[in-house]
Every structure is written in C-alpha cells, then in structure tokens.
Amino acid sequence: MPGDAPGGRIVVVGASLAGLRAAEALRDGGFTGELTLVGDEPDPPYDRPPLSKGVLLGRTRADACGLPSRRPLDARWKLGVPATGLDPLAKQVLLADGERLGFDRLLIATGTRARPWPDPGEAALDGMFTLRTSRDAERLAERLDAGPRRVLVIGAGFTGSEIASGCRERGLAVTVVERGRAPLIGALGGTVGAFATELQRAHGVDLRCGVTVTSLTGHDGRLTGAVLSDGERIDADIAVVALGAVRNTEWLAGTGLAAGPRGVACDAGCRVFDMYGIVTDDIFVAGDVARFPHPLYEYQLLALEHWGNAVAQAETAAHNMISRGPDRRPHLTVPAFWSSQFGLNIKSVGVPTFSDQVVIAQGSPGERRLVAVYGYRGRVTAAVTVNRAKWLEYYQHLIETAAPFPPDPGAADFDGSEPVPSDVPDPRVLSHGPTVYVTGHLPLLRPPSRRPGG
Amino acid sequence: MSSPETLFRRITDYASRADPYPLYAELREHGVARQEDGSYLVGTYDEIAALLHDPRVSSDPHSRAEPFRDPLALQEGMPVSFIGQDDPEHDRLRRLAMRHFGPPHTPRRVDALQGELVRIAEELADGFGDKERLDLVDDFAFPLPVTVICRLLGVPPGDVQQVHVWADTVVAGLDFTPDEDPEPRRRASLEARAAMGRYLGELAEERRRRPTDDMLSALANDDGPDGRLTQPELMVTSVLLLIAGHETTVNLISNGMLTLMRHPEAFEKLRADPTLMPGAVEELLRYEPPVQFLPQRTPLADIEVGGVTVPKGSPLILVLAAGNRDPRRFTDPDRFDITRQDNQHLGFGSGVHNCFGAPLARMETRVALTTLLARLVGPRLLQDPPEYRRSPVLRGPRHLPVARTPGGR
Ligand SMILES: Cc1cc2nc3c(=O)[nH]c(=O)nc-3n(C[C@H](O)[C@H](O)[C@H](O)COP(=O)(O)OP(=O)(O)OC[C@H]3O[C@@H](n4cnc5c(N)ncnc54)[C@H](O)[C@@H]3O)c2cc1C
Ligand code: HEM
C-alpha cells in the first residue's frame, strides 16, 4: 500500500455516485483492507440525471440506469439499511438493523433527498410526486404513460424545468408554478432566467412566476388541483414537487461534527470539521452532502448538487483517506453542471450565483445559442452555454486565471451586448433553491439564515 | 541555431519533409515565433489547445488582413465550406451535416460501414497477389478512403474513379511548393473542385427525386429544426467531406505502416494482440499526425499568446505536430508507445472545428492496419526514409515500397 493507508477498515455511508466512485478509487489507490458500503436504498448504485430526462420520457427504463462499475471492488455491501448514528469516539457507525460497524476511516456520502411537500396530508394524495430515486422516476413515468389531463410542476429549478420539458415532449399539458421571477433564476440569474421564461412559453408550458401554491385539493384521496397565492385554481391530476433538496445529515445529529441542514463542512482535502471548526482526521465527506472551501470563491464553503463534483470529490477524498499528510491533495475542481431541456443543452462552469454582472459574450437568446459570462468585482467567475458547450473550456480557463470581467471582445459571434446586473436573487425568494449554495455568504446579500420550506 | 524568424521557411522546405521534428523542437523553445512575413507560428501544446478553444480566433479566410489574403481560399460565387467559417454559420452547417453522419441523430451510419470496410480492405489486399514488392501507398492506402467516403455519401461505384481523380487534383492544388509557379495547379484544383461540386449537386438532385439510404439522400431531403442546406451549401459540404477525409486518412495509414515497420517490436505486439489497435491508432495520430499544422487561423482581436501579442488579422499557424511532442504535456514525447495512456493528442485538432470525420477515420485506419499486419509476413522497408509528398501540411510518403514473403493471412 502506498503512503500509510490504514490496513484496517473503511466504511462508506451512502452507496450512490460519490460512494461508489470513492470505493473504486480506494481500491485503485491500493487500499487492501476491509471495505464496507452502506446504503439505505435497496438498489445497487444508479445514475440520477437520466431520471428527469430519458426515464421520464419513457425512453430509458428506470432499472437500466445502474452505474457501470469501473473495477471489481471486493467490498461488503449493506444495501437497504440506513445508518442511524455515529460514535466518533468509539469509531463506529450505527445501522438501523442494530449492527455497529467499526472503522478506521469513514466516508460520508449520504447526498440529498427531495424536499417534501410541507403539508403531510396533501403530500399523501394520490398523484403527488417528488423525483429523486429510481423508484420515484419509475412511478412517475408510469403515471405519465396513462395520459394525465394536466401535470402541475411546483418549482422551476433544473429538475422542475426538466420535468416540464419531458411532459411537453410527451404532449401533456403542464403548469409550472415558481415563486421566483423566472425559471432557473436561482442558479443562473436574471438574464438566463428571462431566456428560460421565453423558452418554456414557446414550448407551450403554462408558466406562472411570482406565485406560490398555497394548497392542494383532492377528492377521495386523489389530487384534483391546486390553489395559487394569486387566487387562481389549477386543475391537475398529477403534481410534481420540485422544491429542491434536503441534505441527509440527520443521522449525524449529536455527533459533534459540523453537520446540519446546509451539509457537512470539510476542509479543502475533504476532511470533516467538528462543530468548533477543528478538523477530524479520520472522517471524510464527498458529493452533494459536502460543503467545502473553494479558493476561486474566496474560500467560502460551497455546496454543489452536481454529478461531476460528486465524482471528483469522491476521488480526492478517497486518495486522501489512504495518503500521508504531504501526499494529500485539495479538491479544487471548478464546478460544472449540465442540463438538457426543451431541446437545448445547457452547461455551466464556475458559480453563476457568485456574481454581480453578466454579459452575453457569444450568440444571442434569439438564436437559442449563447454564452453568458458572469463576473464578480471585475473578474470572471462563471459561464453558462446554451448549445455552445464546445467553448466552455475557454471560459473555464478565464475563471481559473481570474481573468478580468467583462472578457475581451472579439468572438466572431459577439453581438456587442453590454454587461448587465446578474440579478441573482436571494435564495429565500425561490421555490426550489439553487443547485449551488455559497453557504458562507452571497456576495451581495446578507447571509441566508435557513432555507425556506415550500 | 538559425533565426526563429525563418522557422516556417525551414519547415516548409522540402528537405525537411522526412524529419521536421528537430525544427518543431526549436519552435517549442520559442513558444510563439513571429516569422519574417508577419505570420506567427505556435508549437507548444497548451498554447495551441488554448487557441483552438478561443472564440477570438477565426477560421474564416476573410478575417486575414489584406496583405495576407490567400486568393485560393476565396472562391468567387461559391460559399466557403464550414471548415473555413466561424460561429454561428459554422455551427449551423456543421450541425446540418452531422445530423446525417453521427450521434445523436444518426448513431449507426459509421458503424454500419464496418463490414463493408473490411471487405474493401481485404479486396485491396487480395490484389497484392504473389507480388513480393508492394507500394503500400498506391496498392493500398491511396484507394481505400475514397472508396469508403464514396460509399458513405452514395456515389455509385461506376463514378468512384472519376471522383478519385478530382479529389487528387484538388489536393494537389493545396500543395505547397515554394519554387514553382502555383497558378496552373491552383487553376486545375479550382476546376476540379467545381466539377466535383456540380457532379455531387446533380447526384443530390437525383436523390431528391428518388431517395436511397445514403448520406447524400439524407442531406438533400431532410428538413430538420434548422431547415435544409441550400444547393450551393450542399455542394461545398459534400466536396469538403470528400476532400477532408481523403489524403489525411491515406497518410495516417501509410505513416502508420512506416512507423510500425520502424518499430518491429510494436509491429509484432500489435499483430499478436489486436485489442491494442485503438490505442496504437491514437499514438500514431500523436506521433506522426497526417495534418502537421493548421495554417488558416486568424485572431479577430490583438491576442496574447505565451507572452507575445499577435496582432488582429495576422496569420496564425498552429503546429499540431509540434504540440504533440511537447515534453511539458507528454512524458517521453519522442518515444513511440502504442500503450501510452494519457494521450490527448492534437491529431484531429480540438475545439469547435475538431475533425468531423474522426470516428470514420479511426475505424478506417484500424481496419486498414489490421488487414496489412495480417497480410504482411516478414515485411522490410525498401527505402527509409521513403519519398515524401511535397505538402508540409498533409505530410506523408508518396510511395512506401516494402518487400515481403508472399502469402500470409
Ligand atoms: C432527477 C435528477 C436529475 C439530475 N440531473 C443532473 C444533471 O443533469 N447534471 C448534474 O450535474 N447533476 C444532476 N443531478 C445531480 C446528481 O445526480 C447528484 O449530484 C449526484 O447524485 C450526487 O451524488 P451523491 O452520491 O453525492 O448523492 P446521492 O446520489 O444523493 O446519494 C446518496 C445516497 O446515500 C443514501 N443515504 C442517505 N442517507 C443515508 C443513511 N443515513 N444511511 C445510508 N444511506 C443513506 C441515499 O439514499 C443515496 O442513495 C440530478 C439529480 C436528480 C435527482
Ligand atoms: C486520419 C484522418 C484524418 C485526420 C488526421 C483529420 C484531421 C483533421 C483536423 C486536424 C481537422 C481540424 C481542422 C481545423 O481545425 O481547421 C479536421 C477537420 C475536419 N475533418 Fe478531418 N481528419 C481526418 C479524416 C477525416 C475524414 C475521414 C473526414 C470525412 C468524413 C474528415 C472530415 C473533416 C471535416 C469536415 C473537418 C472540418 C470540421 C469543422 O471545420 O468543423 N476528416 N480534420
């Protein structure tokens, strides 16, 4: 074994993308000890992005999304069993089936779950859905197959927008209700939000922004519709609640770790902090549940809900779990995200919410092809492409080198647009929450206290 | 060491054709080298890669400042094909063509050709008969890609020979021979290009009346979300597909055989284990790239490259073959290693103009080399270095004479 990897036992809690990739990286890195993966879902690790795309459209089966394994793992799998607690002194993970798993190193990779509808009675109506797991997707796709008269999507973040897109592609009537001023505004700001508004309307979505769902109505236990804050009523037999994600940290309550609703805080090397900000040396975290400092964003703690981040962070965490101090490496990947909706391929690098201005550097909303570049205090901090992904690398380089904002003009398809305020809203006014949280403070806002419920 | 200002002259000098690599190493020492004529050569990997992804760098010949305009690149009356266009036109035309060539709309077109390709390669190899001496260029590498691209587009077998002659004439016009009057060859080249365009245009008309399942029918008949190619666009696009995939693939196959015969261990290893072939083809694209440099780029603004400001409108020449041997990017770059792992070479370019036909070129080369490896028992190079073609851009042997023990399968 290279370095001084513990000969002993590693436990990974959360057997999804980050958990699996970390386990593989541990073996790749030469770890030969005992490896246990604990997951509360019954299925072996699977991929979530297709759930709101191919699966929803009925093109891919939910059970065909299994994550390909990159190598044999020689691991013990405890699937269908949640971890319920952690004893950091005894170095044991407590499982719901009563087992206590001892470890020398622990990786927390419990990700997030869908934020539920706040009213349990309404949430129990037949026709109410959230979308996080393959079972969710399978059930939702079945109900869409049956041809509902109207689908109500609550929240227009990435997931909500992709669901609306899938429903329209199936020819279903869709109403989207979003508390913020525009779809995607929380993650991408006002300019792209305005574009997304046009896009949804052009595709026949009945889009209602600046309103909320105040109650859901039912008959005989079945959903019949919703009442909106402006008094309007919507008839719908299916509602998908897409109000963002809740971090799975409850099982860590009382452990003294810096774990809470905003995630599990760690240092640049994925080592978890305790509640006093002292770093632990045997507990690591990766994926959607992690909050980590990023040098490009003034070392503020970022929490990302991004596939690519989960993989990269898992690999870094695994490396550091089996390496001696000086051989450890930081997790510095520039955040990157993609989404496909309404026939468009949207990609983002950097942190668009960490901005005060935005400029359309290439293309235009009219063409449905564009590059929006975000800046904060005169430097480039993010870029979003719509059907222009091949230019991303260039903008990523600008972000990494803290290049001046606005970027130099000169692109053949730059139409002379001027920078405008990026118009990133306070996350408290969104239905769904952005998929990136700058959990220290947002540059132009007061620190968010707690994120809202519905 | 001579002046870096003369590097381009020395690289294009025919005397350097057999081994330009020491000059490329000299170029890398300078990173970016301004030439006596006001053009700029770039030879380091990171700088080339960055420029290929830089939206301020144009592929459009109209972007050149007046003294640098190349009359051949600007044909009257016809649109420029998408290799010489920028976004958004480039993007639109490339997408329209890609809809009928590759994923996501046409994922099977290239794969479906595999069986056919093996048959064509076997047929060419059958043509070796009992000959003990072969010219791997004329007898094999040269006829293969044209036959394949004609099949893909839907050119009837009876016309392939004619198309081949046109294609050769066009490519000869791109050739670069400093001391010869280029005019006659250029004119012949333009005429061949026009004739090929007319021919393909007429063929497309026919396919519009009676569609078949080839790519030309698809290009001529499809009304996708971006509309349809106009007739002149269709003509220049199909000519581009024919030309771009012709000599490049010939050179990859012949450079490939030459390199493998210079490295008998790799040759034997590859013959014994065909699963190494995909990696070997990538290494060949790095080690002896068929497109040595991209001569057509122009900055649209003054841009900084490796500490040098390249003025707007100047010719920017990206020496892919030098980047491919940059020791700051590749370990042991001058070593030919068919099992190399980290191999993000620049052989197909990069960024928005990256090779459109790469999946086809890869498949053709794998099949070609696999066939030749099986058929060549005890091969020997009869001339090393062989005679090269004139072009410093599309660099490869004109002939590759080898001796072998007849038979072999
Ligand atoms: C519908 C959908 C579409 C998406 N689309 C995209 C996209 O297009 N692009 C993109 O970049 N990202 C996308 N994402 C986000 C991406 O899927 C996540 O970033 C990724 O899944 C994070 O992986 P993870 O392993 O950190 O967390 P998760 O995938 O959330 O996995 C955590 C696992 O831990 C389990 N767990 C939780 N608590 C416990 C416990 N106490 N004990 C045991 N196990 C526990 C959970 O059940 C889960 O299986 C999408 C997500 C969804 C839901
Ligand atoms: C080994 C063989 C090949 C090599 C080494 C090669 C190399 C390249 C390179 C370096 C470029 C980039 C040009 C630039 O950036 O200006 C390119 C572009 C291109 N190639 Fe290839 N090529 C090969 C085979 C093919 C084949 C078989 C086809 C046809 C099917 C093809 C079609 C094209 C086209 C159309 C472009 C222009 C793409 C654009 O501008 O968007 N190539 N090729």
Description of the molecule:
The complex is a heterodimer of chains A (454) and B (409). Chain A is built from eight helices and 30 strands. Chain A has 454 residues and is an alpha/beta fold. With 409 residues, chain B is α+β, with helices and mostly antiparallel strands. Chain B has 16 helices and ten strands. Chain B has helices at 7-12, 21-30, 45-52, 89-98, 114-126, 137-141, 143-153, 160-174, 183-209, 215-221, 231-244, 247-262, 264-272, 277-287, 320-323, 358-375; strands spanning 32-34, 40-42, 57-58, 133-135, 294-299, 303-305, 308-310, 316-318, 377-381, 401-405. In chain B, strand 6 (303-305) and strand 7 form a beta hairpin. The interface between A and B is medium-sized, with 20 and 19 residues. Bound molecules: flavin-adenine dinucleotide and protoporphyrin IX containing FE. Flavin-adenine dinucleotide (FAD) binds next to helix 1, strand 2, helix 7 and strand 24 of chain A.
Entry keywords:
heterodimer, A: 454 residues, alpha/beta, FAD/NAD(P)-binding domain, Enolase-like, domain 1, 3 domains, 19% helix, globular, B: alpha+beta, Cytochrome p450, five-stranded mixed β-sheet, 16 helices, binds flavin-adenine dinucleotide
As laid out across the biggest beta sheet of chain B, the strand order is 1-2-8-5-3
Rg of chain B, Å, rounded: 21 Å
According to CATH, the fold-level topology of chain B is Cytochrome p450
Please tell me what the overall shape of chain B is. Answer: globular
Rg result of chain A? 22 Å
Alpha plus pi helix count of chain B: 16
Proportion of strand residues of chain B:
5-15%
Structural class of chain B, by secondary structure, is alpha+beta
Q: Count the E strands of chain B.
A: 10
Helix content of chain B: 40-55%
Low-pLDDT sequence parts of chain A: 441-454
Q: Distance between the terminal alpha carbons of chain B, to the nearest Å? A: 49 Å
Number of strands of chain A: 30
The fraction of residues in strands of chain A falls at 25-35%
Query: Biggest β-sheet of chain A, characterized?
Result: 6 strands, mixed
CATH superfamily grouping of chain B: Cytochrome P450
Under CATH, the homologous superfamily of the largest domain in chain A reads FAD/NAD(P)-binding domain
Bound molecules: flavin-adenine dinucleotide, protoporphyrin IX containing FE
CATH architecture of chain B: Orthogonal Bundle
Mean pLDDT of chain A: 92
